[in-house]
Write a structure and sequence with these properties.
By secondary structure, this protein is of the alpha+beta class. The chain has one domain. It contains 2 helices and 9 strands; from the N terminus they run E-E-H-E-E-E-E-H-E-E-E. Strands 1, 2, 3, 4, 8 and 9 form a 6-stranded mixed β-sheet that branches. Strands 5-6-7 form a 3-stranded mixed β-sheet. Strand 5 and strand 6 form a beta hairpin. The longest helix is centred in the first third of the chain and has 17 residues. It starts with 7 loop residues before the first strand and ends with a strand. This is ribonuclease H. InterPro entries: DNA/RNA_pol_sf, Rev_trsase/Diguanyl_cyclase, RT_dom, Viral_Replic_Matur_Polypro.
Length: 119
Amino acid sequence: MTDLPSTVCVLQYADDILVSGETKEDCKKASIIVCNVLAQARFKASKDKLQWVQSKVTYLGHIIMPEKPTHPFIPGQSVLIKSLKPTKVGEPRYLGPATVIAVTRTGVLTDYQPQWIHA
């Protein structure tokens, strides 16, 4: 995973993975890298739960979206971690474009590769 852009943050909890980047292109590139790593380890993602490079996603029951369209991602700072501090489930959190991947063992995407997806 050393090829991840420096503006990307990957957060994993159990079988749920959140990939966030400063731009949609960074997020897409990082999401593809993460999905390829998962595929090499024989993991796949649930197509029904996948949220691919979107500005608003739900992760662990929390709605995560940009604070404003130009919300800056600051490399080396905990923008994502601050956004995930405990609050009420369903209360908005803030970060850049994101992908949410729910991993399955049996097996992740219209830009997706078939070897990533568990239908």
